[in-house]
Amino acid sequence: MSRAAAEVRPRETPRTTSQPRRSEWARAWQRFKRYRPGMVALIFIAILIVLAVLPSLFSPYPYTQVFRGMRGAPPSHDHLLGFDHIGRDILSRIIWGTRVALIVGLLATGIAVGMGVTVGAVAGYMGGWVDVLLSRIIDTLMAYPLLVLLITLAAVLGPSLTTVVVLIGFTTWAQYARVVRADILSLREREFSLAAQAAGASNARIIFRHIIPNVLSPVIVIASLGVGGIILLEAALSFLGLGAQPPTPSWGGMLADGRSFILTYPQIAIAPGVMISLTVLAFNLVGDGLRDALDPRQKDSPVAR
């Protein structure tokens, strides 16, 4: 090939192997997917949500239907979990009880997160006497034994599902407020916060538009771990007769029904006890996976557990 032809020949552009940069949430999801117990737990929670949304579709019998002569009967082909002390199908009541557990767990967590993030953000950003006052309220609430406080308030206000959701939500927000306040004490001095102040943004806009999005990762982790604890609180209140009232099925109430028949009809207490344990374990595993996935120090190396 002549020198002139070589000069005319276009230069080959080097191939780039760089991939488009993924967002932090996309990379967190990739890290979470490598945590196999968390993925299994997430699938289990998804099944519970489907059962809670459409219980009548999956329940083989109405949860109030009584089968005569089947009081405490053991599991069979048509009734996989047997019958309770009255003669009702346990599997149907377990499926309908999923709705109560998730309603309390998710709604109460939502209330607690909303209150805790707001109070913690205001206390951490405003400082001064506002911080002192709100911090003392947080410390006072966290000093009370939670279950004793819930039992007292539920007994005073009257047992119902709505009461349980509201009480748990309004008594468990302090832990979120403490975490958010600690993070915002450092974030309020960062460059983006000072720039927003210099631009004339109001305190409310700085808090909710610029600062709170930067503290969502630890809040999400604490909330996912806290749902299981709230489900346990609901089961405890229902066990004591202060939660969802009959004939509405709840796992805690089914445990209370089986307490007197644990030796003669053990399936009455075993089934709801297993469901409570599996559900709490599933939310804890999801929380563990989110804690590792949202940790900024984690790398995108292919490590599976």
Unreliable stretches covering 5 or more consecutive residues: 4-8, 12-18
Question: What class would the helix/strand composition place it in?
Answer: mainly alpha
Tally of DSSP β-strands:
0
Query: Total number of helical segments?
Result: 14
Overall 3D geometry?
elongated
Which CATH architecture? Orthogonal Bundle
Rounded radius of gyration (Å): 26 Å
Order of helices and strands: HHHHHHHHHHHHHH
Write up this protein.
Helices cover 67% and strands 0% of the residues. The protein is an all-alpha fold and 305 residues long. The protein has one domain: MetI-like (MetI-like fold). α5 crosses α12. The chain is elongated. The relative contact order is 0.15. Mean pLDDT is 86; it is low at 4-8 and 12-18.
